Amino acid sequence: MSSDNVFDGIVAEENSYTRLLCNVMRISDDFRNGVLGRFLPSKLASRIAGDSIQTQVNLGEGGTPDIEMLARDLCVFIEVKSDPKCPLTANQELAFDVEREFKGYLGALSRRQGKKWLVYLVPLNWVYLEQLKRSQNESAKKLSSAGIKIHIMHWEDILKISQCDCTKPTNPLVNEFGKLLASQFGPFKLKQEEVEMLLSKDFPAACRTVLKLQGLVERIAQKAKETGGYSVRFGNAELRDRDGPEYGYYLYNAKNKSPLLWFGVEPGFSEQGFPICVVVYHDSDKEKKLQTALSSIQKALGNDHPVEEIWKQLARLLEGFEKPTLGGKELPRDVSHKPRKARAKP
Question: How many CA atoms lie within 13 A of 188 on its CB side?
Fold first, then answer.
């Protein structure tokens, strides 16, 4: 979904959402009180000042909470998930070690004094939501005895706070943050042309084709893990000049923390004539090799075994993009659809 806010194309993954949320809470007292009021009594919420909000605080063996807020006799950890398919790590779970002692965030909180909160900020459609709720119920007695309270909050709640009359006029940053959240977590609404398409006689066939394309992407991701030894992460490519969201995967290897390549399907393919979109991080002299690969990928869609051929082309690309830098900085390039001259992302 496109948006017209100042953060469009800049804030796209969990860490950037976390930092922006912290900045808005530090700057706007009304917004901060609105967020904290979702789980803290007003007297406790008023104790937390903007400058007491920290991100990525290293707790040693306890892990690294996305947000830590400290005040007199009060400690709050917030774990942030913006991707509906991103699971909790071992330190983030409501779990115990073999001796039934708290570990991770819970272990760190159990050693703090005063009132203690662990808050999970996740989308409403987060895949692991019900699993977390079951863990919360199963651990309720032990958590209560340790004085640790758990609260699950949703980005949709934060969106409502940003749109509240009491916070919106306070600071333009709150308004822009709200626009960003609305583009990612706002209510689902179909355009008139989309409704007409859903009701058309061609929709069932088009739907089957899209599902096949998504299945193709899933198989290629599995091939990358099993055959190529790459790690993969589901997510949108966040192309600025597209009306997303896209459906695809980032590919990483052991040497690079930044993705080497993103591949998948994006909504503009029907106008462009080629359904597979590839985003790579590469030097400018690699364009010819990339164009050749895209031509082969296009032809492979009509083969009996497209997964093997497409993965072969992606693997060749990855061999050349092990060092995705130019002048010490990552250079994102978007080359997709019909094999034409590569376009740099703006």
Answer: 5
Q: How far apart are the C-alpha atoms of 56 and 58, rounded to whole Å?
A: 6
Instruction: Give per-residue burial for 23-51: e unless 16+ CB within 10 Å, then b.
Output: ebbeebebbbbbbbebbbeeebbebbebe
Count Cα atoms within 13 angstroms, Cβ side, for 266: 26
Tell me the H-state helices in 244-331.
Answer: 269-272, 287-300, 306-320
Question: Which pLDDT value is given to residue 4?
Answer: 59
In tens, the pLDDT along 218-253 reads 888 888 888 767 888 887 665 544 555 577 888 887
Q: Which residues of 107-133 are buried (b: 16+ CB within 10 A; e: fewer)?
A: bbbbebeebbbbbbbbbeebebbeebe
The strand pair at 74-80 and 329-330 is best described as unpaired
Cα separation of 31 and 173, whole Å? 10
Q: State phi, psi for 123 to the nearest 5 degrees.
A: -70, 160
Domain 14-185 bears CATH identifier 3.40.1350: yes
pLDDT, residue 63, reads 86
What span, in angstroms and rounded, lies between the C-alpha atoms of 8 and 129?
27
CB of 116 within 8 A of CB of 75? yes
Q: Under a CB-based contact definition with an 8 Å cutoff, are residues 210 and 202 in contact?
A: no
Instruction: Reduce the DSSP state of residue 53 to 3 states and report it.
Output: strand
Q: Where in the chain is the domain with CATH 3.40.1350?
A: 14-185
| Residue 281 confidence class, pLDDT cut points 50, 70, 90 | low
Cβ distance 270 to 276 under 8 Å? no
pLDDT of amino acid 168: 47
Cis peptide before 187 (omega within 30 of 0): no
Strands (E), the chain: 53-55, 67-71, 74-80, 115-122, 148-154, 231-234, 247-252, 261-265, 276-281, 325-326, 329-330, 332-336, 343-344
Per-residue pLDDT of 93-151, as tens digits, reads: 987 765 668 889 999 998 888 999 999 999 999 999 999 999 999 889 889 999 999 99
Give the model's pLDDT for residue 188.
59
Q: Which of 123, 171, 180 shows the shortest CA–CA distance to 24? A: 171
